[in-house]
Design brief:
Blueprint: E1 4-12, E2 15-25, E3 43-50, H1 54-67, E4 73-77, E5 80-84
Antiparallel strand pairs: 1-2, 1-3, 3-5, 4-5
């Protein structure tokens, strides 16, 4: 009952390292077992999450605005948030 639609991609420049297509999740993650080490600052994460209601959407966006506004950009379409971090 807590599952919501989520997707995630992790990139190093234009190179896609992890691709988790949209699925119902309660906590999405992904792994790349290539053995190559990347500096965290060189990676970009793109993800989408569809909130179940307006209250959760507002709380999520407020948290980004208050704590991550310099590191994260996001767009909202209905209850779906697309984030680039």
């Amino acid at each position: 009952e807590y599952l919501i639609p989520m997707s995630m991609q992790i990139l190093h420049g234009d190179k896609l390292l992890v691709n988790m297509p949209e699925q119902l999740h309660w906590w999405i993650n992904g792994f790349n077992m290539s053995g190559t080490l990347y500096r965290p600052s060189s990676l970009t994460m793109k993800f989408t999450v569809e909130m179940p209601d307006e209250a959760m959407l507002e709380a999520f966006c407020e948290a980004i605005d208050n704590h991550y506004r310099h590191d994260v950009t996001y767009t909202v379409d209905g209850l779906r948030v697309s984030v680039v971090w």
